[in-house]
Design brief:
This protein is α+β, with helices and mostly antiparallel strands. Among the domains are: 148 residues, Neurolysin, domain 3, CATH 1.10.1370; 64 residues, no CATH class. The protein has 26 helices and 9 strands. The longest helix is centred in the middle third of the chain and has 32 residues. The protein is globular.
């Protein structure tokens, strides 16, 4: 077949699959570039039709018409970029690099189109008299400001600069992500002596054995992927091996090889500062935050400072307790970064008799999955039916129809649980199709959850740690935001909200992970069927504030680093490690590790869309603690409270301002007090 033949390209034309989901099995990497080139051509014709329309610009022929352009392109591009993150190959990486500049140039062609902007501006200038509803008004406001922020008001000379910068930025972000994945995959620690694995629980050893055998090796194999790295750092008695693992993790993309991200990091930060300057902003943070709940760098820094002041006494207390405990166990010298997780876990076990690994037998993945889905049934009335006829992108992916009572199917949900060579680290929610309405009819979204949970072994199923179960809940909260969306316009639907509001639906779900009332309904030992003993559940809840001061300070350090990079007013030409340590100094409790650099592997900032937005995790914690306090007051399974959260938060997406949505649910503005209380900072 000729790949260039448009009619033979499976990405084009009608997708004759169940629910019109991408025909993954037919798609090859070489199909993407010609398909996207064709889709861009179609979208250009749609834009030209808006510009050439001689009728007076109005909401329907300009704003709504613009919203509907690029439907074919918006159908194809998520397939490529989702595959590139979750199931990549060298061919897909090449395809992503090839089309990235094409897409950026096309986006620039739209926002830098002078005649199109004139029409949008004409509609915006008469917005008060158009009689728009709330969602229409926000769409108009977002479109207009998006064009301004996209360079529409620049001179021709500055438009050319803007275009060149944004094309380079998109390519660099992709390369940054590829480098981090390559570096993560590059390191392996193969241990062959039983002395080397002292302290590691049986489940961790078995997983390491299975990993080694899968690569034709004998012994215990450990990698930098979370299911391997995290338990090793928590339990391995061999301090020298913990240090080796830590240092390997901490120097990813910082080794002076072809995957080194130093130059990319500095270049991206400099380009962002240049873009902001072109658009009339002092720095990139000022530009990015204009469209957030926390609308200025000053407001973000004040927020971070307030939380830092609240958490520092607790953090110092946490450190002293760990130091005293480690010393009593024979540690000579300071607690280093490769010691924290190890001694922290041992002290937690002593104080609460709770071992995260010991909880694994009570949390087999299949049971966790059933429990999380059933929680959605209890709260929101949803039910989930697996359908093996739905196309999926990997044989390990499971697809579900999501039913909403007598309303019928409300979404498709894909679950992808385990690490693979071609899958990025961490966990995330994404969409192959977002919700919108066509002629008043709701188009169902196709949502995917991608995670990296511990694999099953020949003798035991996949058993999740409590923290992995918590991750599942978090990402499922994002999925709920996408699946329950009920907006007219795709660009306002689901998770298309202000960045510092997007984590509320995800983080509020984490609260159930600590509730005995929920855990009692499903958490049973996979062999004996026994429930988690009550005393463990009580201690689990008591442990919620354990080391929370340190944890909060650590999270704040990431936010401070983010703000430091994005309040630069030009290109940084100094030492990247010096810059990083200076930015994080006020929130750091442990000694720095020589040779370590976080910025070069900080994908959230340099390839994940959180630039000048990492503070949003803590911001959302304020929102989620306050919102969940209403569930605590009314009952954690209270249907009325849940439906209010659904109607006022989950269904609305970005069709209203976040402050308005939160107030509609909570009855008032958010308060930091619930987070301070939940974190135990007022008890130190």
């Amino acid at each position: 077949m000729s790949v260039k033949g448009i009619t033979e390209n499976p990405l084009l034309g009608k997708w004759n699959t169940l629910y019109s989901i991408a025909p993954f099995s037919e798609v090859k990497p070489e199909h993407f570039k010609p398909a996207i080139e064709h889709a861009i051509g179609v979208a250009r014709e749609e834009i030209d039709a808006i510009v050439s329309n001689n009728a007076e610009p109005d909401f329907i022929n300009t704003i709504e018409a613009l919203e509907k352009t690029g439907e074919l392109l918006n159908r194809i591009t998520p397939v490529l970029f989702n595959l590139n993150s979750a199931d990549t190959t060298p061919g897909l990486q090449v395809a992503a690099q090839e089309v990235s500049p094409l897409l950026t140039n096309f986006a620039n062609d739209i926002t830098l189109n002078t005649e199109l902007f004139k029409k949008i501006q004409a509609v915006y200038n008469k917005r008060v008299v158009l009689g728009l509803n709330a969602e229409e008004y926000i769409l108009l406001d977002r479109k207009y400001k998006g064009f301004v922020r996209g360079g529409a008001a620049l001179t021709d000379e500055d438009k050319a600069k803007f275009r060149a910068i944004t094309v380079e930025m998109s390519a660099l972000s992709l390369k940054f992500e590829e480098n981090v994945l390559a570096e993560t995959n590059d390191f392996e620690l193969l241990l062959t002596s039983s002395d080397d694995i002292a302290g590691l629980p049986e489940g961790v050893r078995e997983a390491a054995t299975s990993l080694a055998r899968g690569k034709g090796k004998e012994g215990w194999l450990f990698t930098l992927h979370s299911p391997s790295y995290v338990p090793f750092m928590q339990y391995a008695d061999r301090r020298d091996l913990r240090e080796k693992m830590f240092r390997a993790y901490a120097v990813r993309a910082f080794r002076g090889n072809e995957h080194d991200n130093r130059a990319i990091t500095v270049r991206l930060a400099g380009l962002r500062a240049e873009v902001a300057r072109l658009l009339g902003y002092r720095d990139y943070a000022s530009y990015a935050l204009e469209d957030r709940m926390a609308s200025t760098p000053e407001q973000v820094n004040s927020f971070l400072d307030d939380l830092l002041k609240a958490s520092t006494p607790a953090g110092i207390h946490d450190l002293k307790e760990i130091e005293k405990f480690a010393s009593a166990l024979g540690l000579q010298g300071k607690v280093e970064r490769w010691d924290w997780a190890y001694y922290s876990e041992k002290l937690r076990m002593k104080l609460y008799n709770i071992d995260d690994e010991a909880l694994r037998p009570y949390m087999p993945l299949e049971k966790v999955k059933e429990a999380v889905l059933e929680l959605a049934t209890t709260l929101y009335g949803l039910t989930f039916e697996e359908n093996k006829e739905i196309p999926v992108y990997n044989t390990e992916v499971t697809a579900y129809e999501v039913h909403d009572g007598d309303k019928g199917i409300t979404a498709i949900l894909m679950l992808d649980f385990h690490p693979r060579q071609g899958k990025g680290g961490g966990a995330w929610m994404t969409g192959f199709r977002e919700q919108r309405k066509e002629n008043g009819e709701r188009v169902i979204p196709v949502i995917s959850l991608v995670m990296n949970f511990t694999r099953p072994t020949p003798t035991r199923p996949s058993l999740l740690s409590h923290s992995e179960m918590n991750t599942f809940l978090h990402e499922f909260g994002h999925a709920m935001h996408g699946m329950l969306s009920d907006c007219t316009y795709e660009s306002l639907a689901g998770t298309n909200v202000k960045r510092d509001f997007v984590e509320l639906p995800s983080q509020i779900m984490e609260n159930w992970a600590w509730e005995k009332e929920w855990l009692d309904t499903w958490a049973k030992h996979y062999q004996t069927g026994e429930k988690i003993p009550d005393y463990i559940l009580i201690k689990l809840k008591d442990s919620l504030t354990y080391n929370e001061g340190y944890s909060c300070m650590r999270q704040l350090s990431f936010g401070l680093l983010d703000m430091a990079w994005h309040t630069l007013t030009g290109t940084y030409d100094g030492d990247i490690v010096t810059f990083e340590r200076s930015a994080m100094a006020s929130s750091e409790l442990l000694p720095s590790a020589d040779g370590a650099c976080m910025s070069v592997s900080f994908a959230h900032l340099f390839s994940g869309g959180y630039a000048a937005g990492y503070y949003g995790y803590k911001w959302a914690e304020v929102l989620d603690a306050d919102a969940f306090s209403l569930f605590k007051e009314k009952g954690i399974f209270d249907h009325e409270t849940a439906m209010s959260f659904r109607r006022n938060i989950l269904e609305k997406g970005g069709s209203r301002e976040p402050d308005e949505l939160f107030k509609a649910f909570r009855g008032r503005k958010p308060s930091i007090n619930a987070l301070i209380e939940r974190s135990g900072f007022n008890k130190t």
